[in-house]
Specification:
Layout lengths: L18 H30 L8 H20 L5 H18 L4 H18 L8 H13 L6 H14 L2 H13 L5 H17 L2 H18 L4 H12 L9 H10 L3 H29 L16 H11 L1 H15 L5 H28 L13 H34 L2 H12 L3 H18 L2 H7 L1 H10 L4 H19 L6 H7 L8 H24 L2 H9 L4 E2 L6 E2 L1 H12 L1
Antiparallel strand pairs: 1-2
Helix pairs in contact: 1-2, 2-3, 3-4, 3-16, 4-16, 5-16, 6-15, 6-16, 7-8, 7-13, 8-9, 8-10, 8-12, 9-10, 9-22, 10-12, 10-23, 11-19, 11-21, 12-21, 12-23, 12-24, 14-15, 16-19, 17-20, 18-21, 21-23
């Protein structure tokens, strides 16, 4: 039975049986042969360019794996339309290129342009459609006001870093926790958590923590694996704790509210931070040689001076972060407005630092030199780093929107959504499959690449499976934790490379890699717990918003109706 659109004649359904199937089998044979030939070429190319131009042998092996996928896609010629096949080939070539080291934005745009021309020659796409398709995609992707928060939060963190506020924060908390075994490691977790909430950028947090804390921990006799592990793990929390750059972009791609996603991530982020701190204290208590207490000679500054140090170094930064998040959660300001206030607040704190220094020196502090640290050069550096990240984000959005437009126009998005949804009608199966894919990709790709590659594929499948908005936020939080785990996974986790670039010579690469393993286990435990108990994420969502979530339907409900339901059960 066929349906007919107005003004068009009905055409009979085509049944690929007998003669039709034999004709299609010829295409299948040609496609399989082409795929096998391309796989051999891909194998040769991957190993030829594997160690050239900054590319690695691992990239070559990935190239081989994806070349084999080309053969599998050629087999798919038998079951899918030509347009869908072209879209899948476009995706495969794109993955091959980025995993062998090419620029991601150019891969997005280049693959889309090449596929558009090939599809046009084969009659599967009209190039004239791009006149309306691309402007609509580009304007829709770049006109989201939430993106204004990206440069503002990055700049706030850059100012805190370059003004010396982050260093003072670490020193103060280190002095407070110094008498405890593992206290300095615990202080690193606290400061890493605060900086993660201030910067929202993993690279900045890990590098700053590595420069400030790793030499001190090595000098105090800390085990190198424990010292590097707490830095990479706590620094990577910048992907999860609001105002995370990852959450901002995931909210845009997922189509969920940024305030709701920020709220949903608070409890999980703090749970992870608490697990890191508890591990540092417990392992240091059980094995004191791993995390010795700070010597009395280094923390003998007097209780009055210690309290003043905490008052002027810890309280202002914590108050700034709290004020920014409070204004977002309560609706007093939008995320972009809160980011602007955060930048202004960071500048004010930087201006007040010399005054705080003089007060501490007058109280007897000898470890402080009053100086204006946010010099024009450092402020210029903060602006440059912010500009680099902002341009990178917007370029990826610009290029990926073209890629996604072609993927959708050729039917690839609908087909992959059907395949993912067809794995099982159960949502939990989709979540498991998606988490495995994200972890594997996260080992080799940055979060920006993953955000713009896989999320546009996941969202249609989630819509087919009827994920509610709270469930999408829960899925996004799981994805952020998964990326945390991938980012510190040896041997190619990005956070490991960030720390390795600033580590002292006595800290070996193998120590950095081994140190990440216990924290990967903790992240895996947290991921499993949040998977089986999504109520933790929902409770975080409810705690920081005026929204209520029904535990049965996992959907937003009226809080008054929910309260009446509870009172009815109680009666």
């Amino acid at each position: 039975m066929t349906t007919t659109e107005p003004g068009r004649t009905s055409e009979p359904d085509i049944d690929l049986t007998d003669d039709h199937r034999l004709a299609k089998t010829g295409s299948f044979g040609q496609g399989f042969g082409l795929g096998f030939f391309l796989s051999l070429i891909g194998l040769v190319i991957s190993f030829v360019i594997g160690d050239k131009g900054g590319r690695t042998r691992a990239g070559g092996l990935w190239g081989f794996a994806i070349s084999v996928t080309v053969a599998a896609l050629s087999v798919a010629w038998f079951n899918v339309d030509l347009g869908v096949f072209l879209s899948l080939m476009m995706f495969t070539v794109f993955m091959y290129l980025i995993l062998t080291g090419y620029n991601v934005a150019w891969c997005f745009a280049g693959c889309a342009v090449g596929t558009a021309f090939i599809a046009s020659l084969l009659g599967e796409f009209e190039l004239s459609r791009l006149n309306g398709l691309l402007p609509a995609k580009w304007i829709g992707a770049t006109s989201d006001t939430v993106l204004l928060a990206v440069p503002l939060f990055v700049l706030m963190g850059a100012i805190l870093e370059r003004s010396g506020l982050a260093e003072r924060l670490l020193n103060a908390i280190g002095l407070l926790m110094g008498p405890i075994r593992g206290g300095v490691a615990f202080a690193v977790v606290i400061v890493g958590t605060l900086l993660a909430a201030a910067t929202g950028v993993v690279a900045a947090t890990v590098i700053v923590m590595g420069l400030l804390s790793l030499p001190t921990m090595v000098r105090l006799g800390y085990d190198h694996k424990l010292a590097t592990g707490v830095i990479t793990a706590s620094g990577t929390l910048a992907q999860l704790l609001p105002p995370s750059l990852v959450l901002i972009l995931l909210a845009q791609q997922m189509g969920v509210g940024i305030i709701g996603l920020f709220s949903s991530a608070v409890f999980p982020g703090l749970i992870l931070s608490g697990m890191y701190g508890a591990y540092a204290l417990i392992i240091s208590a059980l094995r004191p040689e791993l995390g010795p207490a700070m010597p009395l000679s280094e923390r003998k500054i007097g209780m009055k001076l210690l309290l003043l140090e905490a008052l002027f170094s810890v309280v202002p930064v914590v108050a700034l972060i709290f004020a920014v998040l409070y204004s977002i959660f309560t609706g007093l300001a939008t995320p972009s407005e809160s980011g602007a206030v955060g930048v202004f607040g960071a500048l004010v704190l930087a201006a007040l630092m010399p005054i705080f220094d003089r007060i501490l020196i007058a109280a007897g502090a000898s470890h402080i030199t009053p100086e204006w640290r946010l010099t024009p050069d450092r402020l210029r550096d903060a602006g440059k780093s912010t500009l680099n990240i902002s341009v990178l984000v917007m370029t990826l959005i610009f290029a990926s929107s073209f890629f996604v437009a072609m993927f959708q126009a050729l039917g690839g998005a609908d087909q992959t959504a059907e395949w993912l949804a067809g794995i099982s009608s159960e949502k939990w199966v989709f979540v498991v499959v998606a988490m495995i894919a994200v972890f594997i990709l996260g080992i080799n790709l940055e979060f920006l690449e993953i955000t713009f590659i896989v999320v546009p594929i996941f969202v249609p499948a989630m819509d087919l499976l009827e994920f509610t908005q709270p469930e999408k936020m829960w899925f996004t939080v799981l994805m952020a934790i998964n990326l945390n785990m991938a980012f510190i996974s040896p041997p190619v986790g990005f956070s490991l490379f960030y720390l390795q670039s600033v580590a002292p010579p006595e800290v070996k690469t193998v120590d950095i890699h081994k140190g990440a393993i216990p924290f990967m286990v903790l992240q895996g435990i947290a991921l499993v717990v949040l998977y089986f108990f999504p109520g933790i994420v929902f409770s975080s969502y409810e705690a920081f918003t005026s929204v209520c979530i029904d535990s049965t339907t996992r959907d937003v409900v009226d809080c008054a109706d929910q309260a009446m339901g509870f009172s009815g059960h109680g009666g």
